[in-house]
Amino acid sequence: MEDKSAPGEPRRERRISSPEHRAAYQAAKDAPAAHKPKLITSRSVAPQVHGAGPVGQFNTSLAVSVTRSVGTMWAAYVFTLIAIGGGVAVVTQNAFLTALSVLISQTFLQLVLLPIIIVGQNVISASQDARAEADHLTLTTLHAINVQQLKMLEVQGEMLQQQREILDMLHQESTPPTPPTPPHAGG
């Protein structure tokens, strides 16, 4: 993501996040060793969508279970049978089957099932958002730890280089110079 600030201007934060997440993000950057990863599940986030009371728990569990069951191939087969039954009712001009098909497909599926699926998606989406925020904090913490480790390795590398130079100097001082060999006389 590019920073579109003009040169010389301070960088502005453009992400949309809650003040709690921004505070936790800054804390993770400032003290990565203190960060404790969190396990986020749909159950831990569901009370934020419909409340923690019995009615909220019922609404959440019903919406999520309907959403998950409608998103299966078995539900697709049932809907296909309803559509075929409606087609047969129209072709045979059976008023009862036509009315039943219209009631099921247009009234129940569109007016009842669709809002339940949307609510279930909202619950699932809220848990995914919370999981993404928790993962972001953990990744930020890991990044901060990696940066600290790289700085420590750089310092250690410099110290090793200085130690190598000191050892080389000591080695040169402790090694006596070899005297030149005299030329052979006689010949």
Write the layout of secondary structure elements.
Blueprint: H1 19-30, H2 42-50, H3 54-70, H4 73-92, H5 95-174
Helix pairs in contact: 1-5, 2-3, 2-5, 3-5, 4-5
Could you walk me through the main structural features you see in this protein, from its secondary elements to its overall organization?
This protein has a domain of 121 residues. 74% of the residues lie in helices and 0% in strands. It is built from five helices and no strands. Helix 4 runs antiparallel to helix 5. The protein is elongated, with a radius of gyration of 36 Å.
Radius of gyration: 36 Å
Mean pLDDT: 82
Termini Cα gap: 84 Å
Shape field: elongated
Short account of what is shown:
The chain has 187 residues and is mainly α.
Please name the defining characteristics of this protein.
single chain, mainly alpha, 187 residues
